[in-house]
Amino acid sequence: MAVRVKVVFPANEPTRASWPHIGYDVEKRSREVIALLEERLPGFEFSPGVYYSMDEAQRALESERGQFDGYLVYITAMWRGVPELYARSVRPVIVADELYSGSGGFLRTYSIIRKENLPVAGVASSNFQDLIDAVRLFEVMKKMREAKILVVADAETGMSRHEIVSAAQEIFGTQVERINSDQLREYYEKADVREAERWRDKWMGEALKVVEPDAEEILRSARMYLALKAAMRDVGADAVTVDCLGLYYGGKLFAYPCLSFFQLNNEGSTGVCEADVNSTLTQLLIRYTTGRPAYVSDPVVDTATGQIIYAHCVATNRVFGPDGLSNPYIIRSHAEDRKGASVQSLLPLGHKVTTIKVSAEHKAFAVHTARAVANVEEDRACRTKLAAEVDVQKVLDNYHSEIFGWHRVTCYGGYRKQFLQLATLYGLNVIEEDR
Prior knowledge:
By secondary structure, the chain is of the alpha/beta class.
């Protein structure tokens, strides 16, 4: 279903002398802007409204409430009061300045947004792509409202507790469904062994090498992948997260899901470790914003080298998306207990990476950016270790594990601006860890 957006154009009477100028044809300009939006965002439906007074805008707002996935106030005239009305009355909303037309009104409205701490994003740019990027976030928010996360656990874990699940639904609209290890075992037993053998052979054949696991262990991982896919299909889930450590250490998991998550993330779906609902929400935000998978990790800070090392026993090897280039990977055992099968992904270097984390229960959002510089070879800790250069002392000073936990979620590319705008639209408290 298309993303429905109301586009509001404040207007002066043609006889009024004000910016942009007397006789300015806002009706004509509105048609031009809508045409540009429709050309650049074909999956959207835009409904324009040109309003010459507060009363006119108020009547339209009340009659149309609840009909749209987002509101764009494109300020084409000053001192109408319309931008402030929408900033205070509807969600989600973006206010944008038509430079040299509504600039004074935009600055006034943006000051009000900041003073009243309103969850409204502002765009003031001569590059129309900046507006396109912001409006596209309405689609991300719609997808989050329609998304469902499957949690596999036998009990409420610390990272999937009721407080987090409730906040996920309240803030993002995302539903959480649960199954236990016995139910997962049923899916595992029903998994087609021949299909699992094909996945095992594919993973082993494409790997740079296989170190500790044997073919039978990797076959169990392939059956786990098919089991999780079937469980996700049956509940209509867009993402899955498993209490992998708790269940495996407790003898209730017959294979680590590391290769499952590796494959799910490679193919454009979402798999996340440790029944971590906040990291799963974060990874969904990244997937819907960028079209790329993300990499959940336990970061390590090294002030001697100025690096942060993102470490975990699984990672995608298609960081640029399902249709992007792949990088080499090695199939290893899980690091802590030296059992099962996991992935060491040798990730691309020289690229900017953006790392974020949502804390739904705290209504908070962390972000930092870095540059990937090395794949660390070290026998201790998790298998995949991507080193990135950043001001690590600032990251260390701003880490706030009491809010966000240890995990962070990294994607390739410079998406800081879009993620900060998303955090604003959700009303989240932002912590920029590298500043």
